[in-house]
Structure formats: structure tokens, C-alpha cells
Design goal:
Elements: E1 7-11, H1 22-31, E2 38-44, E3 55-60, H2 71-83, E4 89-94, H3 98-111, E5 115-119, E6 137-140, H4 143-151, E7 159-161, H5 174-183, E8 192-195, H6 204-219, E9 222-225, H7 233-247, E10 254-256, H8 263-269, E11 272-275, H9 288-295, E12 300-303, E13 318-320, H10 324-335, H11 338-355, H12 358-373
Parallel strand pairs: 1-2, 1-4, 2-3, 4-5, 5-6, 6-7, 8-9, 8-11, 9-10, 11-12, 12-13
Helix pairs in contact: 5-8, 6-10, 9-11
Length: 374
């Protein structure tokens, strides 16, 4: 890449390990796969995310990465925008909100920079949405959010839809998956269903537990909830859901593993990965963890209620009504039919490689950069 390539400043949460947040993972994979532009990302003081061909500015403080950076860290980012080294274009990655949007709009006006804003997570309320979108181009990740923004009055000329991406993953050997299950205390010789969502923002975990309880006698499956705590409310949600599993007679076959560094290994060891949510608030429209499961050749089950249903295009995943009976029925069919699991897993892997590869995403974003820089 030439030193004269257009310079793109990517403004997001701190881009640094652990890679447990979808928006910073998106920045990592985009910044390392663009070919005609050069990216600068923001990271912690003393941190080095190890991104080849990417300039890292240590703007954030030394505090560990958080899902919502502290006010002082956000102030440092704002000062970087209004007084730091100029770039040809600024690219913002965050869920639209009044404070961040106002800061981005003000800094962009002061420095007179062309801007791109990726809506990493759509807010619940569409009424104020248009006011929080300040950039010259607004990128959405799903058709669902695109429809919402058009209905809110955002001109189609400002909107672009670009699917997220995940780094290519290779399925591990059966022995490696068996070893992981043993190390995590997951019973072997029984079907494994993994719920990799959050606990406090949707009914997804509850529906996964209720569906699991209806299948215990027929499938003798294990349900694993691998959920990160995004807010302090997660603990209370887990206690409530643990009690529910016990009341339904599913307590002994439901495991709570929290946030795992071996999440890819767990996905690969699963027979089915499910996220039967009613809302994806605080998650990406197309959750990266589901795309990673697809990349690993695993059947994915979601509901028709959220944008994640778009993963089912081309028969690459299952999207069922948001209904416990529908979720349980679909899970039961998959868990008792290994040929269907294999077929759907193969379709999922093909779709992930052809639709959600980082190079495809990077090419689409570079076209947007070109629109604003030429």
C-alpha cells in the first residue's frame, strides 16, 4: 500500500484485545483488509493490537477495554478529532446516540472532513434516529435497519448497506472438540445446543431455556449459555433464568459458562447454535457470533422477529416465528436428524465464505470512500 493512499481515521471503541466486541472486531477486520486506503485506528495507551499495515493512535486511557468507554476517554477522542493530525476522511462506528452524534457532527464541521457513519447497533426508538445521523454517508448492516432509516426520513442517497464480516475460520478436528467439551465440563455423547447471546436485553435466553425444557425427554440434549455480562443487570437476569430452568426441570442439563475465550471452539463443538431473540438491541443486526458459527459449518437457528433472520437467505440458516413451540420444534428436528444438520451446516459455511468475508466488506467500504474523496 502506498504512503500516498488516502488516509482514513476510524473512530470507535478502543481497538484492542480481547476481541469480544462486535464493533471493534468490525474495525479490526475492515482496517486490515482495505487495499487502496490506509487506516488509522484508536487504541489504549501502551496497547498494540498487532494490526498489520494499520496505524494505531493511543488515544484512550490505560483502563481496560469496556463496552461503554468512560467519559474521560470519550473526551480524549473528541480532542483528538478537533485538534489532532488531519486525515482525508473520518469513519465513525457506534450505535447512534445524542452525545456521540453531536460530538462527531461538531468535530466534522470544525475540521471540514467527509464522514462515514456505520450504524453498528440500531437503537430501539426510530423517532429521534434521523437527528443522530450526521455523516455524509450512513452505512447500515441489514435490510431491516435500512427500511427503518428510510421510514425515518433519511434520504436513500445517503444510505449504503454493507454486511459485516468475520475472519475465515476452519473447523477443528473432532478430537479437539471432544477435548474442549471435557475441559468445560460439557457432557459428551449428547447433542449440544449453544446460546451465545446476552441475558439482559431480550427474551432470547428465556426462549432457549423453555424450548430446551420441552426437548429433554426426546433429545437428551445439553444447553450451554455462553453470555457476556454487558451491564450490571446481567447477574440478576442470570439468577432469574437459572431459577426458571430449575422450575422447568432443565436445571441439570443447562450449563452457564459466561464469557469464554474459547468461544470459537465452543461454537465448533455445538450441534446447533441458536439465538431466538425478540430484539437485538445492543447487538449487531447480523450478530458476528452467528456468522462465526456459520463459518464453522454449524446450523444456526434464529427468529423472524429480528434482522438476524436475514442470515437465512439462500437456506443458509433457519428463521422461525418468535414462539417457544416453533423454536422447540425446529430444534427438535435438527437434533434428531444428523443429515439435515450436516446439510444446513454446509449451506451455512458456503454462505459465510461468500457473503461475509472481510475482503468483500472492505471492497464495498472502499467504494463509499471513493464517492466522498473524488
Amino acid at each position: 500500500m502506498s504512503n500516498t493512499s488516502p488516509q482514513i481515521l476510524m473512530v470507535s471503541k478502543p481497538v484492542a484485545p480481547p476481541w469480544n466486541d462486535s464493533s471493534k472486531n468490525l474495525v479490526r477486520d475492515l482496517s486490515t483488509h482495505i487495499t487502496r486506503h490506509r487506516a488509522t485506528v484508536l487504541t489504549h495507551e501502551g496497547g498494540d493490537p498487532g494490526l498489520t499495515g494499520v496505524t494505531c493512535e493511543q488515544v484512550y486511557g490505560r483502563a481496560p477495554a469496556r463496552f461503554a468507554p468512560a467519559l474521560a476517554s470519550n473526551a480524549r477522542v473528541f480532542l483528538r478529532l478537533v485538534a489532532g493530525r488531519p486525515h482525508d476522511l473520518w469513519h465513525f462506528f457506534f450505535a447512534p446516540n445524542p452525545r456521540s452524534s453531536a460530538a462527531g457532527a461538531f468535530a466534522s464541521a470544525i475540521r471540514r472532513k467527509p464522514t462515514v457513519q456505520t450504524v453498528c447497533s440500531a437503537p430501539r426508538d426510530s423517532r429521534e434516529l434521523r437527528r443522530w445521523l450526521f455523516a455524509d454517508r450512513v452505512v447500515v448492516l441489514s435490510a431491516s435497519t435500512e427500511v427503518r432509516l428510510l421510514a425515518a426520513g433519511v434520504p436513500a442517497s445517503r444510505l449504503r448497506r454493507i454486511a459485516p464480516a468475520v475472519a475465515p475460520l476452519e473447523p477443528p478436528t473432532e478430537q479437539a472438540s471432544l477435548s474442549l467439551r471435557l475441559s468445560l465440563g460439557i457432557p459428551t455423547g449428547r447433542p449440544l445446543v449453544v446460546y451465545p447471546g446476552v441475558l439482559e436485553f431480550s427474551a432470547g435466553a428465556e426462549y432457549a431455556i423453555r424450548a430446551h425444557a420441552r426437548l429433554i425427554q426426546d433429545c437428551d440434549a445439553t444447553l450451554v449459555l455462553a453470555c457476556r455480562a454487558k451491564t450490571p443487570r446481567a447477574h440478576a437476569s442470570e439468577l432469574r433464568l437459572r431459577a426458571l430452568a430449575g422450575e422447568l426441570g432443565a436445571g441439570d442439563s443447562t450449563l452457564w459458562l459466561g464469557e469464554l475465550p474459547q468461544i470459537h471452539g465452543l461454537l465448533a463443538a455445538a450441534d446447533v447454535v441458536t439465538l431466538p431473540a425478540d430484539t437485538l438491541y445492543a447487538k449487531m443486526d447480523l450478530p458476528l457470533v452467528l456468522i462465526e458459527a456459520m463459518m464453522l459449518g454449524k446450523p444456526v437457528l434464529t427468529t423472524q422477529t429480528t434482522a438476524a433472520a436475514e442470515l437465512s437467505e439462500g437456506d443458509a440458516a433457519l428463521a422461525v416465528p418468535f414462539d417457544v413451540d416453533a423454536v422447540a420444534s425446529a430444534l427438535g428436528r435438527l437434533l434428531t436428524d444428523p443429515h439435515e444438520r450436516a446439510r444446513l451446516g454446509q449451506r451455512a459455511r458456503e454462505a459465510a465464505r461468500s457473503r461475509f468475508h472481510p475482503s468483500i466488506m472492505a471492497t464495498a467500504y472502499e467504494k463509499v470512500y471513493d464517492e466522498l474523496l473524488t
